[in-house]
Amino acid sequence: MSDQLIPLFTAFVGFVSVLLAGYGLLGYLSGASESARLKERVSGTTVKRSDALTAPIGSALSGVVDFFGRLGTKIGPTESAEIDKGRMRLVQAGLRKPDSHKIFQGVKGVLAVALAGGFLLYRFLLSPDMTMTMTGFGTVLMATLGVYAPEYWLTKKVNKRKLTVSDELPDALDLLVVCVESGMGLDQAVDRVCHEMRRSGPIISSEFKLLTLELRAGKSRVEALRSLAARVGLDDLNSLTSLLIQADAFGISVGRTLRVYSDAMRVKRSQRAEEKAAKMPVLLLLPLVAFILPALFVAILGPAVIMSMDMFIKMNSR
């Protein structure tokens, strides 16, 4: 094949590929609409076209999730202590499906194999001169990255959720103080706060909702409060639950306890904000040096450098 025919052949292959992809998309859309009409005839209900189009994608995603779950069951830890520890970390991150632990382990395994396989593919196709030592080291490094990258993501997600809860907790405590001092019981006050903070504090509202559901299911208040502290994993919330348990056991005023702790939490939140504000000049130093000062130097010294170059050129021409 001559060099002049290669661009024409490439354009023809691209055109055929786009044409086949278009025909496949049209066939998929027509098949989805046909299945929607059949479902309407059989069930006697109206099926949305968008639901019919996204149903194959949802089934494919559920199949992938099931595969991750089965793989995580085989390669995950078998000790009950390790399983409970991993499941608790997922709960603290807000991932609370029954099979979240298995799916997470499966994702780690697939990611490790995918990264190691991708590196080997790169080595044999694009870098055949790489030594076996570097190949083995790179493969192990990629597999390790695939195992520990989800752990790092999970740790960051847990810390972010804890920080959000620590910011929402003082407002929730203020509402609890108002509700308790107005004559409500603690259980009713928690239920009221979870409804009032659905928009301003969605995470603490969901945690209080679970606390209310556990109390309604028959769980004792002590066990429900300890479960709340374990689900969140925040030290401030652990201290709060301990205070509430002691106040309930010794007959101390719950409203006074909540008011004192609410003031302490609000002061702590303001101190954390002041700490972040104090760190801002140090954090701004790097972008200032890397981006702003070079542009400023070019704007200030650029004309002088150009004039100096013109002067030296004129002096040399003489």
UniProtKB/TrEMBL annotation:
List all membrane-crossing ranges.
6-29, 106-126, 132-154, 282-306
A Pfam family cross-referenced in the UniProt record is: T2SSF
Annotated Type II secretion system protein GspF domain residues: 173-301
Q: Which residues form the signal peptide?
A: none
Q: How does it sit in the membrane?
A: Multi-pass membrane protein
Example GO CC term: the record gives: plasma membrane
Identify the main location. Answer: membrane
Compartments, as annotated in UniProt: Cell membrane
InterPro entries, sorted: T2SS_GspF_dom
Which UniProt keywords are given for this protein, alphabetically ordered? Cell membrane, Membrane, Transmembrane, Transmembrane helix
- Name of this chain's protein: Tight adherence protein C
Highest classification ranks of the organism = Bacteria, Pseudomonadati, Thermodesulfobacteriota, Desulfovibrionia, Desulfovibrionales
